[in-house]
Amino acid sequence: MPVVAGVDCGTNSIRLLICSVGPDGVLREITRENTIVRLGQGVDASGHLHPDAIARTREALAGYVERMAAEGVSAVRMVATSATRDASNRDEFFSMTAELLGRIQPGAVAEVISGEDEAALSFAGATVDISSARGPFCVIDLGGGSTEFIVGTSAGAISGAYSTQMGCVRVTERIMSSDPATPEEIHNARLLIDEKITQAASHVPLGEAVTLVGCAGTFTTLSALAQGLNEYDPEAIHMSEISFDQMRDTTAELLAQTAAQRKENPVIHEGRADVIGAGAVIVEQLMAAFEELSAGRIQSFIISEKGILDGIVAGLV
Is the pLDDT of residue 43 over 90? Predict the structure, then answer.
């Protein structure tokens, strides 16, 4: 059976999905991995990728390439999102990816995709396991440097998609730099986030959504915390439904903690501990916005472990 791989390199983490392809075209997951590399370290302020960030990403990608080779991967697609879109020295990053990925598929190199393309891939992956009866959906892909909003149906009909320059790393570095964030910083973050949500609403019919789907690390970690898991368990997290009340209890607790205190919780990756406070504020403002947009009808998130990677691999098939 052919084996294919997708790699997603975002602002905070780089992720790998390897699948085999059956004779009927059905995908079977072989491995799914996530490594915090903080590629977007300082990009918002400096406009370029930090050498240490590129080195961390090279190390992680080299490990992924070794795994691909061991599994017999014949085709790979890697996409790079917010951090590389904003960087003046992105050619250095792309040369590194061409060198490593070329060992698996000659000519392969990371692609910078637009926020809208990123959104469409995220939507396809995030909604694959949800009943179509719960649509229309608004998929919210909350990343390190950007957050994508996509409204559509499970049949793939997209009503609108928009990428905002709002993510947990960007908001942390720009506003919430204290540990823990001060009330003034949180207030200022809320103002920025509300502005970005309003911006998204002017491009995407958010009010059409019946069900909210949250994907990427902030949402999956918040689900694990809200469920009181003792360890990060993807099976328990995927397709979990977390009420706004549960989510608000969780975000309030996170915002009161220091990064060191968050690191003590086994479900919070140490590379996410210093930025998940900003992620929590983004989620709080999302809840307030959708309560207003839906006149109170929407009161929960479905959390998906699947997202852009699943869309990438499906596209390869």
Answer: no
